[in-house]
Each structure stands twice: as C-alpha cells, then as structure tokens.
Design a protein that fits this description.
The protein is mostly helical and 174 residues long. It has one domain. 74% of the residues lie in helices and 0% in strands. The protein has five helices and no strands.
Length: 174
C-alpha cells in the first residue's frame, strides 16, 4: 500500500515536471510564431499573454518535481552544521514549507474558483477566461503542498525526507 502510494506520488511529480517542460517548448513555439507573424504582417493577438500563461504554468507545474530533485534552494550548509540536530532543522524547514505551500494552494484554488464564478476575462487582446489559465497554477500549488506534506510525513516516519539531488548524487537525509 505505502509502496504503491510512493510510486503514485513520484509518478505524479514526474508527470507534472514533464508537462512543465512541454509548456517551455510551447513558449518557444509561441515566440517563433510571433516572429513569423511580425515578419509576414499577420496578426497574432494575445501571443504575449499566451507566453505568459505558459510561463506561469511551467513554473508552478515544476515546483513539486524540483523539490524532490533537490533543485529548490536549501540551506544545506546550515543543516550540516546542525550535526546531530539536523533532523530538527529539517523538520522545522518542512513544517514552514508545508505551511507556506498549503497557504499558497488554498488561495490559488480560491482565486481560480472566484475567477470562474465571476467569469473574469484576461484584459489582453485574447480575452481568455482567467480561470482556465489559473488551473495549472492552482494544480501546481496543490501538488507542491502535497509534496511538502509527503516529505514531512516521510521525515517524521523514517527520519529521512524524499529530497534527492541529481547534481550531488546523494540524498540530503543521509
């Protein structure tokens, strides 16, 4: 059961990271299309807004994946200096991160809901319903909160978190 949940969460974080990367590719495509339309004199209304929406989606969808890959800024030097009290430093950091991410997730979902309820539209030339472009942000914020909770519960249960660094090649929990 726990192994299945671990596999599901890791797959979800990875899938979100892949979608984030696809958003970056889509940004490239939008920029190239902007260049082509400028050279040809064809209008591409809202292209700058679309690039912005994709950048927000790419950022928020990458948060959980980046956290578990050790790509977020961590104060490893301070944690190492804590020595035998490192666990307490990690615990404090994960409690603060969980609190902040949960707060962000709550208000991201709430903002998306209100945008839908009020039929809020983009003020750019695209006039896109804002709730549609807020969904990836809200999903990414909720996934980040889940990832922090996952790491916090794992740290409490096993004395290690799930954060692994691809750069250093070793886990932070060791």
């Amino acid at each position: 059961m726990l192994r299945t949940l671990r596999r599901f969460l890791d797959t979800l974080y990875l899938a979100s990271g892949v979608v984030s990367a696809l958003c970056l590719v889509a940004i490239l495509i939008v920029i190239v299309l902007q260049m082509i339309t400028r050279w040809s004199g064809i209008a591409f209304p809202g292209s700058s807004e679309y690039a912005g929406y994709l950048m927000a989606a790419a950022s928020f969808l990458a948060f959980a994946y980046a956290l578990n890959r050790g790509a977020h800024i961590r104060v490893s030097l301070l944690l190492t200096a804590l020595g035998k009290y490192r666990f307490w430093g990690e615990l404090w950091a994960l409690v603060m991160g969980t609190s902040a991410a949960s707060y962000l997730a709550w208000y991201a979902v709430k903002a998306t809901w209100w945008s839908h309820k009020l039929n809020d539209l983009s003020q750019g030339q695209d006039a896109t319903p804002i709730w549609i472009v807020q969904i990836p942000m809200a999903f990414g914020a909720v996934l980040l909160a889940v990832c922090f909770i996952d790491n916090l519960v794992t740290l409490i249960a096993t004395k290690r978190d799930n954060i692994r660094s691809d750069i250093i090649g070793q886990s932070h929990g060791e």
